[in-house]
Amino acid sequence: MKKPADFIFVALLTVLLSTSVFSQDLKIPEKTVQDSSVRYKDGTFGGMSRAKYIYEPFWGSVSFSIKNGEFADINFVIRDSSLHETFDGKYENHFAGNEEYIQQSRNDWKGVQTYPKKLSENQDINKVDAISGATWSYNIFRASVNEALKNAK
Asked: Residue 98 has what DSSP assignment?
C-alpha cells in the first residue's frame, strides 16, 4: 500500500513543474502547407467534388495543367446531375419568380467564371478568396482543385 507521503510528493512535483518553466506559454508552430511550398509534378490533372454539399445534385469538375510547377489551362464547371445540365448564366431561369435565388445564381455564376482566373493569377489555391455571395461555387471549386492536386504531388 502506498504511503500518503507518496501522494503528497507526486502532487507537489506536479505543482512545481506546472508553475516553473512550463508556466510560460509554449509556442508550438503551426504547420501550414501552401501550394507555393509544395512541388507538383507537371501534367494534366482533374478532380470532381461536391464539397460539403453532399445532399445536393451538383458536382464541380476542374481540370488544369501544371507546367514548370505553375497552374495553366484551368477549366471549371458545375454540373447538375439531377437535371443533367451545366450550371451557367442561364441556370437562373429555374428560379423564375424567386429574386433571391436568381441573385444567388448570378453570384455563383460569377464565381465559376472568376475562380479559375484567380488561381491562375495567384498560383496558390489558399490565396483564392471567395467572392461575396458566391461561397457555394467557391467551396465546390476549392474542393475540386484539392481533389485534382492529390494526383499531382
From this structure: -
> What are the structural domains, with CATH classification, of the chain?
38-149 (3.90.1010.20)
Give the tens place of pLDDT for each residue, 1-10.
456 555 565 5
Contact between 128 and 118 (Cβ < 8 Å): yes
The reported pTM is 0.75
Cell of 16: 512545481
Q: Could you tell me the end-to-end alpha-carbon distance of the chain, in angstroms, rounded to an integer?
A: 58
Write out 25-55 in H/E/C secondary structure: CCCCCCCCCCHHHCCCCCEEEEEEECCCCCC
Q: Give 71's contacts (C-beta < 8 A, 6+ positions apart).
A: 64, 65, 119, 120, 123
Mean pLDDT of 118-124: 96
Region of 96 please: left (phi>0), alpha (psi -120 to 50) or beta. beta
Q: Which helix (H) or strand (E) holds 101?
A: helix 99-122
pLDDT higher than threshold 90 for residue 153: no
